[in-house]
Amino acid sequence: MSFCKDCIQGVRHEGEPQGTLETIDGVACYVATPTVDYPKDKVILFLPDVFGIEINNAKLLVDDFAINGFKVVAVDYFNGDGLPIDVMNSASFDVKAWFAKHGTEQTRPPLDRVIAVLKERGVTKFGATGYCFGGRYTFDLAFDNVIQCSVVSHPSLLKVPDDLEAYFTKSKAPLLINSCEVDEKFPVEAQTQADEIFGDGKFAPGYKREYFPGCTHGFAVRGDMSDPLIKAGKEGSFKAAVEFFREHL
Q: What are the CA-CA distances from residue 28 to residues 19, 75, 81, 128 (Å)?
């Protein structure tokens, strides 16, 4: 791949998505392909938060990974039913009911079908970058050693320390965690436990945790770009992910 550490292209905060929508074995995906030569046997799976692959921020992130030399496939494992972007401002929307309809039984099969087709197309190495809800599936894929490199940003739905210990025991995939100061889904206590389990060279495949002060859950995808700390967190987490994939995938 004709890139060096110092020539990483930064993440954009606005603009028009350049990727394409593709249906893979009945699953809607947003796909971004580098314009330069790239390894055809590698794909990064972009595993979105509860808002799915339709929001502009997610598509721009996918595009920006492709600009940095990776083919990326964002998977709609919500089957066209991601949370509405304005749901946080709605007192009437039943989030618990939504989650009840989007459990493992509904959301894992679409992901597996996409991976199976990509393997048929010659992909032999997968990375995954998971945000919030997608962090859970990044761990699950790593447990099964389906992926060869893991990046999670403000992950949710993890049982700590159980899932961290399971990752250490089962997975061979290097792990990067992008964490932040205020995150009830992956708080500082969980971050500390991750360092205790994986850090100081204990996890042979490779481990790194980035910490972004002044940021809250969701910072790597969504956030107030007028806040310099949140802007730095989004840009820093993206740069860390690109560097980690270049080193380990």
A: 13, 7, 11, 17
